[in-house]
Amino acid sequence: MSYDDQNIFAKILRGEIPCDKVYEDDHALAFNDIAPQAPVHVLVIPKGPYVSMADFSANGSDAEIAGFFRAVGTVARQLGLDEPGYRTIANHGRDAHQEVPHLHVHIFGGRSMRGMIPKPKPENG
Ligand code: AMP
């Protein structure tokens, strides 16, 4: 699981590509998803080069992990989502259809979200 430093979120972190930033601290950057799937759809990414949750949880330092997850909660709170509620998702790998190989936590909010995950298609279970 090697990190590709040409992935789009690495370019955003380096300032080579713009983003619609909503939050930044020493450990994390948060920005609006370019193709929102809810009224609020924000991505929170760690500043270090981690492919996914599998990589980060195994190789991130305690400070990076604590700082990142505190940032996820802070972003949601600052977006006013603590009271109505929100959903977080972090896709890892093929089965989860991870598209960008830099860890990102999606924060979805602003509407009721029934159903935990999509139902399986009959042909592939
Ligand atoms: P995932 O399938 O979990 O890897 O999700 C990748 C997400 O990144 C998708 O929701 C995309 O809409 C989003 N995305 C891709 N490129 C950008 C970008 N340049 N700025 C903001 N969001 C992006």
Radius of gyration: 15 Å
Shape summary:
globular
Report the mean per-residue pLDDT as an integer: 96
Strand coverage percent: 15-25%
Succession of helices and strands: HEEEHHEE
The oligomerization state is single chain
Question: What is the makeup of the main sheet?
Answer: 5 strands, antiparallel
Query: What is the terminal-to-terminal distance?
Result: 27 Å
Number of helices: 3
Given helix and strand content, the structural type is alpha+beta
Question: If strands are numbered along the chain, what order do they take across the biggest sheet?
Answer: 1-2-3-5-4
The portion of residues assigned to helices is 10-25%
Ligands, deduplicated:
adenosine monophosphate
Regions with pLDDT < 50 over 5+ consecutive residues?
A: none
The total count of strands amounts to 5
Give a topology summary:
Layout: H1 8-13, E1 21-24, E2 28-32, E3 40-46, H2 53-59, H3 62-78, E4 86-89, E5 105-109
Antiparallel strand pairs: 1-2, 2-3, 3-5, 4-5
The structure holds adenosine monophosphate (AMP).
The site of adenosine monophosphate has 12 residues, from loops.
Overall description:
With 125 residues, this protein is α+β, with helices and mostly antiparallel strands. It is 24% helix and 20% strand. Strand 1 (21-24) and strand 2 form a beta hairpin. The protein starts with 7 loop residues before the first helix and ends in a 16-residue tail after the last strand. The mean pLDDT is 96. The structure holds adenosine monophosphate (AMP). Residues 8, 19, 31, 33-35, 43, 91, 97-100 line the site of adenosine monophosphate (AMP).
